[in-house]
Amino acid sequence: MFNRTNLLIVLVAIAGAALGLLAGSRLGLPPQREVPAGVAVLKPGDMRSDLALPGADGSDHHLSDWNGKLVLLNFWATWCGPCREEMPLLDHTGTKLAGTGLTVVGVALDDAAAVHDFLRDNPVRYPILIGDGLDPDPSLLFGDTRSVLPYSVLIGRDGRILAQRAGSFTSGTLADWLQPHLEPSG
Questions:
Q1: Of the candidates 136, 160, 162, 163, which has an alpha carbon nearest to the alpha carbon of residue 147?
Q2: pLDDT, mean over the chain
Q3: What is the pTM of this model?
Q4: Mean pLDDT value of segment 160-171
Q5: Residue 36: is the preceding peptide bond cis (ω within 30°)?
Q6: In angstroms, rounded to a whole number, what is the distance separating the alpha carbons of residues 123 and 111?
Q7: What band does 38 get if pLDDT is binned at 50, 70 and 90?
Q8: Which CATH superfamily is domain 52-181 in?
Q9: How far apart are the first and last CA of the chain?
Q10: What Cα–Cα distance (Å) separates residue 95 from each residue in 23, 73, 177?
Q11: What residue ranges in 34-184 does DSSP mark as E strands?
Q12: What is residue 90's predicted lDDT score, i.e. its pLDDT?
């Protein structure tokens, strides 16, 4: 039978565990970066901005170039190990699911020369845009308020943000993330 002392010990233990979980979850995340005045950070349901960036192919691109497509916009950098590791998966998935209307678009937050060198040795079949040196950082505009790479945004065929995800994908997490938004190939 519980007496008051036992009840107090149990309550203190529960409170301590809850505070520990809260602190652990907060401490494990990078701090929020400051959003400059006048900058709108997109969230699910918002219309994507028509970001204009130079491509690694030498042409200028706008996100509206892919209107009507389901776009997986992936922010990455050559110095980011998890980014480099997930690129073959993104490349394979983009090719495999092209019949569903999916297009993968990479945005390198890196020096253009470093991106070209990396792509020469590690080519991908999806377009790569160069987003380095822009103010504000294009990943911030699309919701990456913690400066986490890789960072992915799923943009619907209507141009609205469907989902945002910080961190790298495995084949299972990518399939689960995309599945609700795919159209059957026909």
A1: 136
A2: 88
A3: 0.82
A4: 96
A5: no
A6: 17
A7: confident
A8: Glutaredoxin (3.40.30.10)
A9: 66
A10: 41, 15, 17
A11: 52-54, 60-62, 70-76, 102-108, 128-130, 151-155, 161-166
A12: 98
Element (H, E) at 22: helix 4-27
Instruction: Name the residue type at position 143.
Output: G
Cβ count near 169 (within 10 Å): 22
Residue among 70, 79, 110, 104 nearest 90 (CA): 104
Of 83, 87, 124, 98, nearest in space to 178 by CA = 98
Residue whose token pair is 């918002």: 46
Pairing mode, strands 161-166 and 60-62: unpaired
Name the more confident of 4 and 103: 103
DSSP 8-state code for residue 72: E
Angle at CA of residue 67, ends 55 and 178, nearest 5° = 90
Give domain limits for the chain. 1-30, 52-181
Q: At what angle do helices 171-178 and 81-96 cross, to 10 degrees?
A: 50
* One-letter identity of residue 167: G
In sequence order, the 6+-apart residues with CB closer than 8 A to the CB of 122 are: 84, 87
83-135 pLDDT, tens digit per residue, is 999 999 999 999 999 999 999 999 999 999 999 999 999 999 999 999 998 88
